[in-house]
Amino acid sequence: xxxxxxxxxxxxxxxxxxxxxxxxxxxxxxxxxxxxxxxxxxxxxxxxxxxxxxxxxxxxxxxxxxxxxxxxxxxxxxxxxxxxxxxxxxxxxxxxxxxxxxxxxxxxxxxxxxxxxxxxxxxxxxxxxxxxxxxxxxxxxxxxxxxxxxxxxxxxxxxxxxxxxxxxxxxxxxxxxxxxxxxxxxxxxxxxxxxxxxxxxxxxxxxxxxxxxxxxxxxxxxxxxxxxxxxxxxxxxxxxxxxxxxxxxxxxxxxxxxxxxxxxxxxxxx
Length: 270
Known about the structure:
The protein is mainly α. Helices cover 60% and strands 3% of the residues. The protein has 9 helices and 2 strands; from the N terminus they run ββααααααααα. It has helices spanning 15-38, 45-67, 70-73, 90-107, 112-138, 159-164, 172-191, 199-215, 231-253, and strands at residues 4-8, 11-14. It is globular. Catalyzes the transfer of the diacylglyceryl group from phosphatidylglycerol to the sulfhydryl group of the N-terminal cysteine of a prolipoprotein, the first step in the formation of mature lipoproteins. One of its GO terms (cellular component) is plasma membrane. Its main location: membrane.
């Protein structure tokens, strides 16, 4: 892994920032392809990619600052904008990005739930998978010591090495990125079923939250918050419980994507 790809004078080009930007671009490209394939809203995708991408960065940073690292940042307020140091919480990025996306769809009279199913959910999880590559290159979102020879040993310049030294750590960020790709495929499969409007997006929220909840037991970059659980686990558990309820409710009472149209009987010839 390489935190710095190269330098332009004294200015470092960091792999974290480059791959994070790439994740937003490729998520936008994925969204454009899916919208173009569906035949709706593809001309809105570039604008939404910019707005939601920027909102995602801001939300991810603020979520990390206030829910994960406030003990540090309360004494280093000027470092809050230093996103190149790492410290981006995906959950916060999804929340603020979703809010901005919702406002955009309402402004342009786009069916929010349909858009979320067709475009948003698969594209977002693909962007998250690529984003975890940035974490690996930067040496953050790392796991706890494995207690064996298995695991990742991070370079001395990373936060993981500063905390755990040469101990092998669980590859939490790698496994999360791989699981995200699996969720991406599952969402594509769900899109082609006769699902209720909104169920694909809710399935994304539930599946990712479930994966995140269990992977957090391996994470070693921050401590527990309450009930022996970490803040990300408490958030994930809440989303899972609410999401499963919404998924079931939509399945029972929501409108179906592929509901057959009511056909008028052909007029009999006289």
